[in-house]
Specification:
The protein has eleven helices and ten strands. The N and C termini lie far apart (47 Å). The strands form three sheets. It has a six-stranded mixed beta sheet with strand order 1-5-6-4-3-2, with helices on one face. A two-stranded antiparallel ribbon has the order 7-10. With 347 residues, it is of the alpha+beta class. It is 33% helix and 16% strand. It folds into two domains: 82 residues, Phosphorylase Kinase, domain 1 (2-Layer Sandwich), CATH 3.30.200; 245 residues, Orthogonal Bundle (Transferase(Phosphotransferase), domain 1). It catalyses: L-threonyl-[protein] + ATP = O-phospho-L-threonyl-[protein] + ADP + H(+); L-seryl-[protein] + ATP = O-phospho-L-seryl-[protein] + ADP + H(+).
Length: 347
């Protein structure tokens, strides 16, 4: 049974104290801190202009938010703010940081393949739940994967449904509007072909690749967020497992990536097939092989945010109704340039 949002119409300030600290910026609005007046509990508050697209985002996210690996929405208010009709979305406050920031900031203990498999289980279970609801997220990326708290027992959850869309088994046309974040985009999204939920599986494969080595399989050689050459390599599926970072990674992990990164969506594994893959089903039994991921990310401690910022600039320059990415001539990708030079990759 679908969960339906009940929009509250009383002023949110009757129930919550809204803070000034910005916790993040999504596709369609910013997220700030707020506290519930009656008990002082802290939440994240997403502020959206009340337009049909924002309502769809909230409705899809709310419907999916009962899953343990999807950020939960508690309440939604319809209010006017500065003479603008807005939606105020009260969500759980994710205080544990983003996925790769968390890995990057580890101290002495090595990040292991078993941990990578655990993380991928969490991500894929969220995607499988969405796909079971006929919802495509369409923006699976590290910045949308947050931990509940700083502890070792924190739970990883998916958020930001700004690009999400429901597919109703033929009653609605397939996804045609190209919406994507560079580095995580599936080949079919780059073309005029129609695409479906399998673009989320591709993005999961990209994240698995980075988890296991510390850098993405596809990138621009010229520092642009997405260059013609990068598009060509994505469409051709030109990536490899070359370099010392891959020497100790299991064949099962590489096999999962290959199944996710099939360039033809018809050949790509479904999310249910991925959930049945031995690397996912036995995620708690995967060898605790130390990976180079933390070291690679720490080598570029200052540069990794540049990659994220570059992606966000490209995202901000897009119009959702038609694909349009501005050329960012001043963008520099020092992280990936250094990786190419140091490892001798010729992708």
């Amino acid at each position: 049974m679908n969960m339906v949002v009940k929009f509250k119409t009383n002023p949110i300030k009757e129930d919550y104290i809204i803070g000034s600290q910005v916790l993040g910026v999504g596709i369609n609005g910013k997220v700030v801190e707020c506290r519930r007046i009656n008990d002082g509990e802290k939440f994240a508050l997403k502020v959206l202009r009340d337009v049909p697209k924002a309502r769809r985002e909230v409705e899809l996210h709310y419907e999916a938010s009962r899953h343990p690996h999807i950020v939960r929405i508690f309440e939604v208010y319809e209010n006017t703010y500065n003479n603008v009709e807005c939606l105020f979305v009260v969500m759980e406050c994710m205080e544990g940081g983003e996925l790769f920031t968390r890995i990057q900031e580890r101290s002495n203990d090595a990040f292991t393949e078993r941990e990578a498999a655990n993380i991928m289980y969490s991500i894929c279970s969220a995607i499988a739940y969405l796909h079971g609801l006929n919802i495509a997220h369409r923006d699976i990326k590290p910045e949308n994967l947050l931990y509940t708290d700083p502890s070792n027992h924190a739970i990883l959850k998916l958020t930001d449904f700004g690009f999400s869309k429901r597919l109703d088994d033929g009653t609605e046309k397939p996804l045609e509007t190209p919406c994507y974040t560079p580095y995580y985009v599936a080949p079919e999204v780059l073309s005029s072909k129609k695409y479906d939920k399998s673009c989320d599986v591709w993005s999961a494969g990209i994240i698995a690749y980075i988890l296991l080595c510390g850098y993405p399989p596809f990138y621009s050689h010229h520092g642009l967020p997405i260059s013609p050459g990068m598009k060509k390599r994505i469409r051709a599926g030109q990536y490899n497992f070359v370099g010392p970072e891959w020497d100790r990674v299991s064949e099962a992990a590489k096999d999962l990536i290959r199944k996710c990164l099939k360039t033809d969506p018809a050949e790509r594994s479904s999310i249910n097939d991925i959930m049945c893959h031995k690397w996912i089903t036995h995620y708690n039994k995967i060898p605790e092989t130390p990976l180079e991921t933390t070291k690679v990310l720490q080598e570029q401690r200052l540069q990794w945010p540049e990659v994220q910022e570059e992606m966000e600039k490209a995202l901000a320059s897009m119009r959702v109704d038609e694909v349009h990415i501005k050329s960012l001539n001043d963008a520099k990708n020092t992280l990936l340039a250094k990786r190419m030079k140091s490892s001798g990759h010729t992708k």
